[in-house]
C-alpha cells in the first residue's frame, strides 16, 4: 500500500481514462453514421430516393449498416475492443483482502482446519521451502496475514472492523497516467516536461483554435460567412432593385463560401468535361474570351455546376461533393438574398419586388432542377402554363414536351386534368415507360394546390376598421390558406395521418430531404415594391385541406348520394372538372373552396376553412386606389404559385386625423419615426432609392443572354395588368 498522501501513476487507470474518452467519441459518431450523417453523397441520394420509392425497411437498414461499418470504422472498433481487453486483464487482479479465500478454507472452518491449511501453503511459499522472491512476498503479504487475522484476537477484531488484520489502511491515490510518468529518474524529466507541455497545453489549445477558426467563419445569418453578407450588399455583386431571376445566379455564385472552395488538380479532367457540357447547353458561351470564363476558377466551377444541375445533366463523380455543397448552401444563401431584397429601402419601408420574386423562383429551379430559360419571363400565377412546370416532372425533357404538344397537352394543368387512363396513354405516347409513368404519377399526386382568401383592415384602439385606410396607416392583411393535393382524394386516405412539424417536399433532384416552405408577399408591381412578406409552414392548412377533400370526395363520388341529388356530374363539371373522374380540387379548375360552391363540404370537424396568419405593412404615402397583389409562392415547386388581387383605397389624412379628432374618432398611436415617415421628414435617406441608385445599373456581361434566362425588369407593370384580367 502507498503511504497516505502519496500520489502514484497507474497504467490501468490511464487505460480506463483513454477508454472513457474514446468511447465518448466513437459511440456517438457511429450512431450518427447509422443515421445517415457523413455518408457518401451518392449513397445519401440513393437512400433518400429509396425511401420515396418504398424500399423495405430491412433492406434500408442492411445497406446503412454496410455503409457505416467500413474498413476504417472496423479498425476503430477493434482498437476499442483491445482497450476493453487490456483494462479487464490489468484491473482484474486487484481484489479485496479475504483471508478465507487466501487460505482456501470455509467461513465456518475450525482452528485445526486453519492451521492445517496454513502449514500446507507454508510448504509451498515459505522462504525456507521456496527461494523465489515473489513467493516470499506473497507469503508475507497474504498467507501470514491471513493466518494471523483468523487466529490472533486483535487481528480478528481489526479484520471485522476495517477489513484488514493490520487495522485501518492509508488511502492510496492513483493518477490516470502511466507509471513511468512518476519515475524518479532524472533522465526522464525532460521527456515528462515535453509531454506535459505539448500534450497538456499546446495540443489542446491548437485543437480549440482550429475548431474556433472553422466555426467562426459561419456566424452570419443562416450560418453563412460574414464576408458573404458583405458581398451580397456590395453594389457591384450584390442584390439590385431590378434583379430578376436571370440575374440571381450572378450574385449567388459570388458568395465567399464558393470563392474559397478548393479546386485540386485532380478535378481538371472533370472540369473540362463540365465545360464541354455547359457550352453544349449554352452555345453563346463558346467564345473563350467571354466574361463568363474570366472569373475565379472556384466561382466559375460553381456557376457551371449550377447550370448543369438545372439542365439535369450527369455531373462527373469528382465534382459530386462540390455539387452537394452548392445545393445545400445555395438555399440558405438565397434566403439571405431574399431578406436583403425585402429590407426596407423604399419609403415608407418597402423592399424590392423583382429580386424577391427572383430569389424564390431560383429556389424552385434549384430544388426541382429546372432550366432558367424555361422559367424566364413568366409572371407569378401564370407559371403553371410555362414549360418549366412540366420540366420539373421526372423523366421530362424537351422531346417529351414536343410529343405531348402533339396531343394538345401544353401546360401542367392540362396534364393534371386528364383522367388516369388518358394521362397514361399520353405519357406512353410521349416515350415514357410504365415505371417512368409511375414516377410522374407519384409526383403529380404530391403536387400542392393552394386556395387563398385575403382581406385588409386597420386596427384602431383595439377594434378593426375594414372600411377606412388613411395615408401611411399600419394595415393588416389577414390571409386564410387551405392546401390540397391529389393524394388527398385517393380512396382510403386518412386526413389524420398528416402530422409532424412540416411537410417534406417531393424533390427527387435535390440531394437531401427538405421542408416545404411557402412565402406570401404583398406587392405593388407598378412601383417594384414588396410591402410585406411572411414565411409560413402550411401543415395545418394541408390537414384542413385533406379533411375538406375527403368530405368533398365522399359527397360527390358516392353514387347513392349523386342519384338522390341528381346532380353529381353537373356539379363536377361546374366546378371545372369532368364527369369522367377528373379532380376538381386543382388550380386549373374554376372551383373555389372559399367561394359560394365551397361551403357545402364543411362539417363540424372543420372549425375554420384554412390556416390564418397576418401580414402587416404601411399604407402608401399618397391617397388613391392601389391594385396590390398577394403572391403565394412555394420554394419547392414550379407552377404552384398563386396571385390574389387586392384593391386598396387610401384616403388623405387631414389635420384632424393627425390630431385624433378625425373620421375615426380616435387616432392611431404612432411613434415619432412613423410621424416623420408620414410627413416625409425621415431622419436619414440612407434607406431610400436615392441611396441605392449606384446599384441600379447592372454591368452588362457577355454571358447575360436570353439563353441564361435574363428577364427584363420592366415586366412588373404588365404582371399587375394580367393579374387584374385574371
UniProtKB/TrEMBL annotation:
Molecular function per GO: protein transmembrane transporter activity; RNA binding
CDD domains: DnaJ
Gene3D superfamilies associated with the record: 5' to 3' exonuclease, C-terminal subdomain, C2 domain, DnaJ domain, Sec63 N-terminal domain-like domain
GO CC term, one of those recorded: Sec62/Sec63 complex
Location relative to the cell: Endoplasmic reticulum membrane
GO biological-process terms attached to the record: post-translational protein targeting to endoplasmic reticulum membrane; SRP-dependent cotranslational protein targeting to membrane
Keyword annotations from UniProtKB, A to Z: Chaperone, Endoplasmic reticulum, Membrane, Protein transport, Transmembrane, Transmembrane helix, Transport
Membrane topology: Multi-pass membrane protein
Region (Disordered): 655-726
Annotated Acidic residues bias: 696-726
Domain J: 98-163
SMART domains in the record: DnaJ, Sec63
Main location: endoplasmic reticulum
Listed transmembrane segments: 12-32, 69-87, 191-213
Bias (Low complexity) ranges: 682-693
UniProt name for this protein: J domain-containing protein
Lineage per the UniProt record: Eukaryota, Viridiplantae, Chlorophyta, core chlorophytes, Trebouxiophyceae
